[in-house]
Write a structure and sequence with these properties.
This protein has 167 residues and is α+β, with helices and mostly antiparallel strands. It contains three helices and six strands. The chain has a six-stranded mixed sheet with strand order 2-1-6-5-4-3, with helices on one face. Strand 5 and strand 6 form a beta hairpin. It is elongated and about 90 Å long.
């Protein structure tokens, strides 16, 4: 009787252990899949910003931003909220940047948590020869968060890259 009881305890312990192992493995596989899906969604947000700029659509440019997003422009100006970002960009698309295009390149996506990522992007703006003063490269830092509606840009900082002639 004692031997049978010990065997049952060992089998029960082993079964519980294997259940834990399979659960961890399943979560790991899910995390890998989710990470790839999350990265694709983040990349799509950046692609959408680029498309919005290049087609001069403020609404499309602002769509990846959270409704209450913080946006610091290359010159230090600050906008809060998707609506303000859309309106400000439509204004510059209709005027000073109407002949420019941008190319955005993701340099790094770093997940701080499963629902928070820091994204570093470089950007190059092209303009016709007579508007070259509008051309500048930039380094952008975005904090993106995920909720039930997907990934959105919660905070955005845009910094102009100035070539250092002494290097």
């Amino acid at each position: 009787m004692k031997r049978s009881s010990t065997s049952i305890k060992l089998l029960t312990t082993f079964a519980a252990f294997m259940l834990c192992v399979f659960t961890v493995l399943a979560q790991g596989a899910r995390a890998t899949t989710t990470c790839a899906e999350d990265e694709a969604a983040i990349r799509e947000n950046v692609r959408q910003m680029e498309a919005g700029w290049n087609t001069k659509q403020g609404a499309l440019f602002a769509k990846p931003f959270a409704p209450d997003a913080d946006y610091v422009v290359i010159n230090g100006m600050y906008f809060q909220g998707r609506d303000a970002i859309e309106k400000a960009h439509q204004q510059i698309f209709n005027t000073v940047f109407k002949n420019t295009t941008v190319r955005l390149s993701i340099k790094q996506i770093r997940f701080l948590r499963l629902d928070v990522a820091v994204v570093h992007v470089t950007g190059h703006r092209d303009a016709p020869e007579n508007e070259r003063e509008l051309v500048s490269d930039a380094f952008m830092t975005m904090v993106m968060t995920r909720d039930k509606e997907g990934w959105k840009i919660a905070a955005f900082q845009n910094t102009q890259i100035i070539a250092n002639p002494q290097r």
